[in-house]
Amino acid sequence: VSRVEVASSALVLALMMASALNAAGLSAKIRGTQSATNQAALLCADLLSEVRAQPMPAVLEAVPTGSVSGPRDAFDDVFDYANYVAFPPTDEKGTTIEGAENWWLRVTMQWLETGDLSRTSTDPTGVLAIRVAVNRGSKELARMHTLRTSAGEAARFGGAP
Q1: pLDDT confidence of 24, banded at 50, 70, 90?
Q2: Long-range contacts of range 109-118, CB-CB < 8 Å, 24 or more positions apart?
Q3: Which residues, in sequence order, are bridge partners of residue 11?
Q4: Distance, CA of 82 to CA of 64 (rounded, Å)
Q5: If we measure between CA atoms, which residue out of 111, 137, 106 comes closest to residue 124?
């Protein structure tokens, strides 16, 4: 076996090792990203479920515009969540969610035109769009939407729409 053959074999082996390490690193990065996306989706779903459990006020009003933060355990209607922001995300009692320390979440709401749900309205129309988003820095990891209607509230809690 010549020195050239040994050197070329060592070079090929080194290239294969470098490729294998690169693939392993990329796989770990993808797993970490997927794990973060899954956790963010769960945070979105949990908060959206919490918002949906709250009733709309009996008298429809404009969506509040001020930003809200802090514990949510005293929130008693859907508008208490309007413009809610948490950095880092917390549970209902204000405890930081483990593993999400550098994330933030936001709840936004807006009235939609009843005849055209792609258009927003400044007036209470009876159709409320609710959006929950979880971000890490400027990157959105997860987002979920739902609609609430005054007719649905009447069916759910009784009374006229």
Answers
A1: confident
A2: 109/63, 109/78, 109/79, 109/81, 109/82, 109/83, 110/63, 111/62, 111/63, 112/147, 117/147
A3: none
A4: 6
A5: 111
pLDDT in tens, 54-92: 988 878 888 888 888 888 998 999 999 999 999 988 888
d(CA 7, CA 13): 10
Residues 107, 47 contacting (CB under 8 angstroms): yes
Q: Determine contact, residues 80/69, Cβ cutoff 8 Å.
A: no
Does the pTM surpass 0.70? The reply is yes
DSSP codes of every residue in 78-145: GGGGTTBEESS-B-TTSPBPTT-TTEEEEEEEEEE-SS-TTSEESS--SEEEEEEEEEETTEEEEEEE
